[in-house]
Each structure stands twice: as C-alpha cells, then as structure tokens.
C-alpha cells in the first residue's frame, strides 16, 4: 500500500534499521525492564562492555552479539529483542528465567565499523534510501564475489570502494586513542581503501573469535607467513593485525580483554547459577551450529556427553527460523571454547544473504531484515523452554 508519495519498493520503510554505536547506547540507556548490571569488563581503549539482565528467575541464559563488528545485524537484532521484551514482558516468565544480554561484545570494532558506514549512510537518510544503499552494497558484493570465484580476482572490491573516504578521520575525535590505533594498523599493513567498513576485529586489529590459545594459523603466525582471507578480503593477510582473522598481537599470545570478560562471565555464572544455555549471534548464512560431542577429542571435565542436550536446543531454534543445523566446527575459535564450557550453547548465523555489514538490512529481497527480526525473537522465547527442560534432565542423570 502506498502510504505517501515518496516512492516505495515493496516492503515497509517506516523506520531506520541501521544503528551506529552512539545510537545503540542511546537505545540501551532507555531500557527500563532490562536492568543494566556492572559492565563485564573494559576494552584496550577503555570502552565498557555493557551487561543487561531481564528477569530474576533461577534459570540463566546468556545472549551475545557483535563478536565480529562487521556483523552489525546481530547488535541491532539483540537490542531490538530487548526492546521487544520491554514492550511485551509477558512472553518470558521473569520469575523462571534470567537473561543476560551482552549486546555489544566488541565496542571498539563497532565504533570503527559504524563510523565508516555513516560516511555513506548518514543518520538523516530516509529509511527508503537506507534500503537503496544496502541494495547497492549487496549488488556490488555479489558482482565482486563472482569475480573472485570465477576470475581469481584480487583487485579493489566495489563494495569497499563505496567506502573509500571512510578513513580513520571519520571516527569522532572523542575516540582519539582508538582512532590512532586504527590509523597505525591501516598504515603499517597498507590496508586497502574502504577497509573500515569491513572491520570485524577490535581496536587493535585482533579477531576476537580467532583469539584462542592455539589458533588456526599458529604456525604461520610464528613463521610470519601471510595467509590470505578467502573471497571478499582476499587481498588481506590474517596473520597481521587488521579487519579480520588475526588471532593475537605479535609476537606472543595474549587473550584480548573482551574475551577475558566474556569467559569470566560464563565461568562465574556457571559456578553460581543454573545456566541452561547461551545464544551466540553471528551473520550470515541462516545457520545454527551446535556441539556434537560424540567424536570430540577433548572431553568435558566431568566426562559427560551433552550432544542430545545441544542438539535438541538447536532443533527447537530451527523450528521457528527454518535455519539449517550444522554440527561441524572449528576448534580454533572462541565460540568453540564457549560451547565446550556451557551445554545448550548454540551459534546462530543470521540472514540468508551474503555480504556483511549491510546486506542483512535489505528487506525488499526475500524480506531478509523482517524475517531476521521476527523469527529469531520467537525462536529465543521457545528455545529457552527446551534449554530448561534439557538442563533439568541433565541434572537427574
Ligand atoms: Zn562472525
């Protein structure tokens, strides 16, 4: 239905969808039923990693977004879900559950990424134009993906070229230390123009998911042999600090403060409370990963096998999203460490559309955005029930 004469693609363009770091925090500041707790930690450049809870029941679950800053849809989804709970608190019984939200796990990366996005899509942009920019980004990435796959192309990427004026200067001066750090990384590694719009890492260029004790490119890290990223960032090596993939700061392993904070949250909660599971959000692929422990080399400390627990949690989540379930995994990720730590943990890849950070905000193709927002809300609410059931079952055995 045409609501005004401004022109429409099919879809609802009433509201803005993309949130920058400031807007996210502003929205979080306005929450009333989700209560802010003490931050779980601070980043290298002293940004708080904010923590909110909903409910005060005995069964606890953890929800995180934005491990990879470029997967911006995850932050936006989790914040929207918190707002949805504020408006509809009856959907989850607060006397049964306590939900722990970490909506911005990687604040530095989110500042870098969203500052870059705002150079092309300013806040004043209408929702309709926001959609068009996202489609343009998606189409550019689609063309480039084909060039990489079919021509082994390593040239400048159109979707990054859109952001070629997004230099560290677009980061507000109140983030001076972070800005200098990004400037230094881009210069030293000679990173391509537009790279800030691809930023997954934190402010020192470390990929939080790769930041584990024995990372995937351990040998190459030691021998300083470059490893190139596949597809979109195939001109960038992952053994040096940068937008993606680099597991630790040269020259020896160090756990990044963001990971220290999230591990500590898991550990302290598991010790004190009945923690029934967690939802770790990434993008994209419309996938659910759970831990199949049947063929695990490393057993849990108590030797228990939680495969059935993990699987039934994944199956419930699938029922409301139709996402594909996978049980394969890389042992060299922080997500794996968390899955190993807490039964009932699933990793969800939001969106069936390629190319972060903007394609998942497209709605005119397959209602990508609307489906992400609606299906996952319902899925969390229902999956919590399965988590609780499985938790109780595991306590009896
Ligand atoms: Zn990711």
Structure description:
This protein is α/β, with parallel strands linked by helices and 397 residues long. It has a domain at 109-233. 39% of the residues lie in helices and 11% in strands. It contains eleven helices and eight strands. An eight-stranded mixed beta sheet has the order 1-2-4-3-5-8-6-7, sandwiched between helices. β3, α2 (72-87) and β4 form a beta-alpha-beta unit. It is globular. The N and C termini lie far apart (56 Å). It binds zinc ion (ZN). Zinc ion binds at residues 67-68, 71, 282.
Summarize this entry quickly.
The chain is of the alpha/beta class and 397 residues long.
Characteristics of this structure?
eight-stranded mixed sheet; binds zinc ion; 8 strands; 397 residues; 11 helices; alpha/beta
- How helix-rich are the residues, as a percent range? 25-40%
Q: How large a portion of the residues is in β-strands, by DSSP E? A: 5-15%
Helix and strand composition category: alpha/beta
Question: If you compute it from the alpha carbons, what radius of gyration comes out, rounded to the nearest whole angstrom?
Answer: 20 Å
Average pLDDT rating: 93
């Amino acid at each position: 239905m045409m609501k005004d004469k401004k022109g429409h693609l099919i879809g609802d363009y009433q509201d803005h969808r993309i949130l920058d770091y400031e807007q996210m925090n502003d929205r979080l500041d306005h929450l009333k039923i989700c209560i802010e707790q003490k931050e779980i930690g601070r980043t290298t450049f002293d940004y708080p990693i904010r923590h909110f809870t909903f409910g005060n029941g005995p069964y606890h679950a953890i929800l995180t977004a934005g491990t990879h800053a470029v997967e911006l849809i995850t932050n936006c989804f989790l914040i929207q879900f918190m707002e949805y709970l504020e408006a509809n608190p009856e959907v989850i019984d607060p006397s049964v559950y306590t939900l722990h939200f970490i909506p911005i796990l990687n604040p530095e990366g989110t500042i870098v990424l969203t500052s870059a996005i705002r150079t092309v899509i300013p806040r004043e942009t209408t929702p309709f134009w926001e959609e068009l920019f996202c489609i343009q980004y998606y189409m550019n990435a689609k063309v480039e993906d084909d060039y990489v796959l079919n021509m082994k192309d390593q040239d400048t990427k159109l979707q990054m070229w859109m952001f070629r004026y997004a230099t560290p200067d677009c980061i507000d001066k109140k983030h001076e230390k972070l800005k200098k750090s990004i400037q230094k990384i881009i210069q030293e590694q000679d990173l391509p123009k537009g790279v800030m719009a691809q930023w997954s890492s934190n402010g020192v260029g470390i990929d939080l998911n790769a930041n584990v004790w024995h990372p995937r490119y351990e040998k190459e890290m030691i021998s300083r042999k470059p490893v190139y990223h596949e597809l979109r960032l195939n001109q960038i090596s992952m053994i040096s600090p940068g937008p993606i993939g680099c597991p630790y700061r040269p020259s020896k392993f160090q756990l990044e403060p963001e990971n220290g904070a999230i591990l500590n949250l898991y550990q302290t909660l598991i010790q004190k409370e009945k923690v029934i599971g967690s939802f770790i959000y990434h993008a994209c692929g419309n996938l659910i990963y759970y831990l199949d422990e049947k063929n695990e080399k490393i057993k849990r400390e108590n030797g228990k096998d939680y495969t059935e627990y993990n699987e039934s949690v994944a199956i419930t989540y699938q029922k409301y999203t139709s996402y594909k379930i996978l049980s394969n995994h890389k042992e060299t990720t922080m997500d794996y460490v968390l899955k190993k730590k807490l039964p009932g943990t699933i990793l969800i890849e939001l969106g069936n559309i390629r190319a972060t950070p903007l394609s998942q905000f497209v709605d005119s193709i397959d209602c990508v955005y609307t489906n992400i927002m609606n299906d996952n809300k319902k899925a969390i609410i229902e999956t919590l029930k399965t988590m609780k059931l499985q938790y109780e079952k595991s306590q009896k055995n």
